[in-house]
Predict the structure.
Amino acid sequence: MALDSIAAVILYDETASGFRAKDLCDRLALGLAGDVELRVNVWRTDVLKNPIEATLALSEAAAADLVVLALRSTTLVSTLVRQWLEDWGAAQHVEEAALVVLGGGAGDVLSPLGARQLQDFAASHGLKCFCQHEQALPGLDAGSGDARPHAVPVVPSLPEFPGSYFHWGLND
């Protein structure tokens, strides 16, 4: 059966983070072959406080091939987002689903601790995980006996936010 669409869900905490994630998805869409369509649904993390909205976002993410987590705060993932991710991991039913994690602004990358947290989450749910992170994770070296890779896969840095993205669907 031919692939005719890819579903993505963006979960972002600040507008600039959402724009960066949307830009990444637009670039991905340009690289898709043939008539494959990229369908993107966008959710702001603060709506997860509302159980109805959180459930709607979760149902979309459960059927998504890709969840893009775009966070300005790149140290640790909040409890609210972490719980939603756990719910998504348990509910997702797409084979080879992936989690992509982007920092919010220029130079923002996920801390090694945050990267480890998300990599462990992804591994425990059979998900691929790609983080905007360029440093080795602490405690992983050749003699440690830990079979995990030394670094989290890297999402290439995106250029500076070029200005206004009027009517991109974020908070319209």
About this structure: The domain at 5-131 is CATH 3.40.50.360 (Rossmann fold). Strands lie at 5-12, 37-44, 66-71, 98-103, 128-131. The two ends are 36 Å apart (CA to CA).
